[in-house]
Design brief:
By secondary structure, the protein is mainly beta. The chain has a single domain (5-442), classed as Porin. Helix content is 7%, strand content 53%. It is built from 3 helices and 21 strands. Strand 2 and strand 3 (93-104) form a beta hairpin. The longest helix has 21 residues, at 24-44. The chain is globular, with a radius of gyration of 23 Å. The chain starts with 23 loop residues before the first helix and ends with a strand.
C-alpha cells in the first residue's frame, strides 16, 4: 500500500515519533484545548436527560496482545489495553467519550483520550464538537480519500486497520436532504501522523546517500489561518454510492528541507554530510469515491489529486532537497463472494504529474491488495487475510489472523505478519516476520 493519507506520505523524519518531537508548548496547547472541551461536555450533562440510569451507556473491552519475531522468538509487542466508551443521551443530542488505559512493553501505563465530543442530532442537520474520528474512505487498507484523520504508523501497518486512524479536534456539521448529504469539517488544532521511533524495528529506511542530521518539524501554531477545512458531498442511491470531497490542510507527515551539506575534496567530490529540517506544509486535495452493485459484484473506485505536494529529489538539482508537483492517486476494486468466502481485489496507482528524472519517486507506483474473509463453525470462527503487493520490486506484506469468538463477550485471536522482498515499502521489513496472539473481553 502506498500511504495516501491526504496524499501526504513522504519519508519519516529519522523514524521519530511526531508526538515525541512535539514541543512542550504544543503539548500544553493540546491539553488546554482538550480540558476546555471536557468542561463543555460536562456542562451539557444535566440538560435533556430523563435520568442518569436511562441516559448513560457504558461499553468497552480489555485486551492483551503479544507479538514475537519468527527468526529468534524475541518479543517486540506486549500490550495490555483497557478501553472504556461512555455515552450520555441528552435527548436531541449526546456526549461520547472513549478513554483507554494502555501498557506497552512493560512501560508505565498511560491514559489515551481517543475521543471526546458533544453531538447534536436533528432531523436534517447534525453537529459534532470535540475530539473525533472522521472516516471518509471506503477502501481496504488504503487511505486515498481519508483526507481528515491522520494515522498512527508507529508500527507501520501491523495494527488492525481501525486502529491506524487518529482522532482530530474540531467541528463537524452534516446536512441531509433526501438522498443527498453535505459534510463540513473544521479542524483548528493540528494533529500529526505518529511515526516509528528511531530505534523501532518499524523505522523506515531513509532515501538519502548519507545519514542525515534532522531537526524535527515544528507543529503549526493554533490560529484561524492555520486551520484545516474539508467538505464532502454524498449521494446514496439504490444501487450507487457517490461522493465528492476536497480539503485545505497541513500535510501531517513532514517533508525535509536541506539546510546544510558538505562535500569531500576534489577531484571527485562526494556528499559527506547533510542537514535537514522537517517541515509541515499546506496544500489542497480534491477527490471522489464511487461504489455500485452490478449483479454479484460490488465495483468501487476512489481517487484524489493533491496540489503542490513536495517530493524529495537529487540535492544537486533541487537546492531545497525537494520540488513541488501535483500528484494523483486512484484505485479500482471489486468485492464478491464464492462458496461462502468474501474476496476484495484492488489496484492502486500513484502518478506524479510533470515527473522529472531527479525525483526519488518513480513517475508511476503500482500496488495491489487482496483481501479474504471466511467464517466457520456457525460464524464463531473467522479467518481474515489481507495482502499488499508492490509491483515494482516486487515486495509484499501478508497480514493474516484467526479469531475464535468463544462467547459474545470473549474471543481469542492469533496470526502472522509476513514480509516478502528485499527493498521497497514492504521488502525493507523482510526481517520483521512475526506472529501474535491475543485475548479480548468485551463488556
Amino acid at each position: 500500500m502506498n500511504e495516501a493519507d491526504r496524499s501526504r506520505a513522504q519519508f519519516p523524519a529519522a523514524g521519530e515519533s511526531a508526538i515525541a518531537r512535539m514541543p512542550s508548548s504544543d503539548q500544553s496547547r493540546n491539553s488546554t484545548v482538550l480540558f476546555l472541551l471536557a468542561l463543555l461536555v460536562l456542562a451539557a450533562l444535566p440538560f435533556g436527560a430523563a435520568s442518569a440510569q436511562e441516559a448513560l451507556s457504558l461499553s468497552g473491552y480489555g485486551r492483551s496482545k503479544v507479538g514475537a519475531m519468527l527468526d529468534d522468538g524475541s518479543l517486540f509487542m506486549l500490550e495490555n489495553t483497557l478501553d472504556l466508551q461512555a455515552g450520555w443521551d441528552l435527548g436531541s443530542g449526546a456526549v461520547f467519550a472513549d478513554l483507554a488505559l494502555v501498557e506497552r512493553e512493560g512501560a508505565a501505563a498511560t491514559f489515551e483520550l481517543r475521543e471526546l465530543y458533544l453531538e447534536y442530532l436533528g432531523e436534517a442537520f447534525d453537529l459534532r464538537i470535540g475530539k473525533q474520528q472522521v472516516i471518509w474512505g471506503k477502501s481496504d487498507g488504503v487511505f486515498i480519500t481519508d483526507l481528515v484523520s491522520p494515522k498512527d504508523l508507529s508500527r507501520f501497518l501491523v495494527p488492525d486497520f481501525v486502529e491506524l486512524r487518529r482522532a482530530v479536534t474540531g467541528v463537524r456539521a452534516n446536512g441531509y436532504l433526501g438522498n443527498h448529504s453535505l459534510d463540513l469539517v473544521w479542524v483548528p488544532l493540528f494533529s500529526p501522523t505518529i511515526l516509528p521511533a528511531g530505534d523501532s524495528i518499524w523505522a523506515a529506511s531513509l532515501p538519502f546517500p548519507v545519514v542525515p542530521t534532522i531537526d524535527p518539524a515544528v507543529v503549526p501554531e493554533l490560529s484561524l489561518e492555520n486551520g484545516e477545512y474539508f467538505a464532502k458531498y454524498s449521494y446514496l442511491g439504490s444501487s450507487i454510492d457517490l461522493s465528492l470531497m476536497g480539503g485545505w490542510f497541513w500535510n501531517d507527515t513532514p517533508a525535509f528541507r536541506v539546510t546544510g551539506k558538505t562535500f569531500t575534496a576534489p577531484p571527485n567530490p562526494q556528499l559527506a554530510s547533510l542537514d535537514l529540517q522537517g517541515e509541515y506544509y499546506q496544500s489542497a486535495a480534491f477527490g471522489y469515491g464511487v461504489a455500485a452493485t452490478v449483479g454479484p459484484l460490488v465495483l468501487r473506485s476512489e481517487g484524489a489529486i493533491t496540489m503542490d505536494r513536495r517530493y524529495q529529489g537529487d540535492f544537486m538539482v533541487y537546492p531545497t532537497g525537494y520540488t513541488e508537483k501535483h500528484g494523483i492517486q486512484y484505485l479500482v476494486g471489486t468485492d464478491f463472494s464464492i462458496l461462502g468466502t468474501t474476496f476484495g481485489l484492488q489496484f492502486i496507482q500513484d502518478i506524479i504529474l510533470d515527473h522529472e528524472s531527479a525525483l526519488m519517486n518513480d513517475e508511476f507506483t503500482n500496488t495491489a491488495t487482496i483481501a479474504m474473509v471466511r467464517t466457520f463453525a456457525r460464524e464463531t470462527v473467522r479467518l481474515e487475510m489481507l495482502a499488499y503487493v508492490g509491483m515494482a520490486e516486487p515486495d509484499a506484506l501478508l497480514k493474516t489472523q484467526l479469531v475464535w469468538k468463544m462467547t459474545d463477550a470473549f474471543e481469542l485471536s492469533g496470526g502472522a505478519w509476513l514480509f516478502f522482498g528485499e527493498e521497497g515499502q514492504f521488502g525493507q521489513y523482510d526481517g520483521n516476520d512475526s506472529v501474535f496472539a491475543g485475548a479480548k473481553v468485551s463488556f
